[in-house]
Design goal:
By secondary structure, the chain is mainly alpha-helical. The chain is built from 15 helices and no strands. 76% of the residues lie in helices and 0% in strands. α4 crosses α5, α7 runs antiparallel to α8 and α9 crosses α10.
């Protein structure tokens, strides 16, 4: 029985890796229908080399037991309280959706000599957003909004949503509009159209929804699977306007 679950976990990893790395779609069929043999073929042909072996093992273990990575990183931090070890642990908490512990360790990391670390502050914003702590999102967003990587990013999008919740509609629109980039940010752009409709900008919302529907027709097969519900919702919303 344990081998069955191991094969399922290995298939999950291989399919995730194939989609993430835009491998030809036929690999998904090979992985799915040939089961363990298909996974081995995929790993040898598309993934494996000696330098990647340790990383692959780690990622598969994380799929099977996601809390193991956190325990391992906690031990690593206890052994050496370095900045990078603390950030690695915070990243693991964020990935596991333990937002409060992620924020705790990100804050401790910032207490050192890395007060302007864009990466850490960006991830703090990711953690504060699902907690609906919009005031903190705005506060940390203000610290990095002049950074080049902030522009046209998901972080700027979350900052815009937080500004709306804090009552600053004009600045919210400026920041949300920045992510309206063709063939990207599909889910974020759909949320942006809801913002526009809510504030009486229906015609602008219609144009974005039309673009989403057209882009959905031109997507690769893997992206069509990934964003199917988003494009369907965009179409439905457009029909209702």
């Amino acid at each position: 029985m344990i081998w069955y679950y191991l094969v399922i976990a290995l298939q999950g990893f291989c399919i995730y890796h194939a989609i993430k790395n835009r491998a030809p779609y036929y690999w998904i069929f090979i992985i799915f229908f040939l089961s363990g043999i298909g996974c081995i073929i995929y790993l040898i042909a598309q993934v494996y080399n000696k330098r990647d072996a340790e990383k692959i093992t780690s990622e598969i273990t994380h799929i099977i037991n996601p809390t193991k990575r956190i325990r391992d990183l906690e031990k690593q931090l206890a052994f050496s309280e370095s900045y990078q070890n603390r950030v690695n642990l915070a990243d693991a908490y964020l990935e596991n959706k333990d937002y409060k512990n992620a924020i705790k360790h990100y804050k401790e990391a910032l207490d050192g000599n890395f007060q302007n670390d864009f990466y850490v502050i960006k991830n703090m914003i990711e953690a504060y957003h699902p907690l609906e702590d919009y005031k903190s999102v705005v506060e940390y967003g203000n610290q990095i909004k002049t950074h080049s990587e902030f522009k046209k990013s998901r972080t700027q999008f979350l900052y815009g949503l937080a500004l709306e919740n804090e009552g600053d509609w004009e600045q919210a629109e400026i920041n949300l509009k920045a992510i309206d980039v063709r063939f990207s940010f599909y889910e974020e752009r759909l949320i942006y159209t809801k913002f526009l409709i809510k504030h009486g900008r229906t015609e602008v919302a219609k144009d974005i929804l039309k673009s989403l529907v057209v882009e959905g027709q031109q997507m690769t097969k893997s992206n069509k699977r990934l964003y199917r519900s988003t494009i369907l919702e965009a179409q439905k919303q457009l029909e209702n306007l």
